[in-house]
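This follows on from our talk about sequence and fold. Go ahead and set the record down below:
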Amino acid sequence: MGDRLNPYAPPADDAAKAARVITSPPGVDGWRYVDPRRIGYPLVGLLVAFGALTFGLFWIIVATNPVLRDMERGLHDPDVAESYARQARVLMVAKTAVLLVTYLTFLLFVRRANVNVRALGATSIRSTPGWAVGWFFVPIAAVWKPYQVMREIWLASAPQHRGREWWHAGTPSLLPGWWCGWVLMFLGSWLLQRLDRETIEERIQFNQWLGIHCLVTLAATILAALIVYGLVRRQRERARTHGYT
């Protein structure tokens, strides 16, 4: 006649809550672990998009400079160079918009990763979740403090470390390489805004520096994507050792 309802069974909502407790135990000292893929994978996608736009801008710069040199000798139509310049401006606007979204998402990821390592039992984390983000906005300190924040999160996320054992771990070259590229990227952006572009020769020199800046930016972006992806994997593997599924 069909399945009969058990009058002693808990309500469906209570059963679902109980299942969640079993598969996702509470964090340590009130900190709650959340799957880092929720922010990490979209962030990797944004970094890939930003890198693609940067590479596109670099390609236009490579194509533009020979045209500018021909213009100096009167061998090329100025409209061709102007067409390249319009394409470069469009890419730079798009790149700036994607960078802003990527930067905000990155800060959200940093805060979540900081909370996660605490929830997964790491101790002696010097930066709170708030300051893990705040250091990016403090003048002068922003040159080195965010790097320390990311180093702490990376080392403390290792599955094999317990408590403060991560303090004795070595730093992979991936982190300082990324941070050097990150600082050079923002410093280069500031310097490029102060270069003149009135004459053809000045435009050629500007493009040369912009091309170098694109390569540095591309390298920093690739390293940032590797770090984010690596942190997602490390934290999920550490979470499995703590009973999270």
